[in-house]
Specification:
By secondary structure, the protein is an alpha+beta fold. It has 4 helices and 7 strands, in the order βααββββαββα. It has a 3-stranded antiparallel β-sheet with strand order 1-3-2.
Amino acid sequence: MKCSRCGLCCHNTEMLLSLKDISRLEALGYNRKDFVTITLEGFHQIRNIDGKCFFYRNKCIVYNSRPEGCVYYPIILDPDGKRCLVDEECPNYYTVTKSEIKRNCKNLKKLYKELINEAQKR
């Protein structure tokens, strides 16, 4: 995939966070109360400030430690969590290859299950 670093995926994001993501970001010195919200369904989600990801300041300030879902984006799961697809809202969605989808899909499905398990425990 070719990322142009446009930051569109960081605007009005609904990126879910695993407990591992949260711990990794806390280890950088951030307080979870500042960057995490909890959805009605019990998922941890990244907080938006003025319509942008908490960590987006004209670029991702935690890029090397970004949430796992951000690593896989624009590869996403369908609403049922069964099929990987490419988010066409990404301006470079067309650069994602079938091999990239295949390579990341297994990990994305594993992350999805982890997020569901964590939410159910809350």
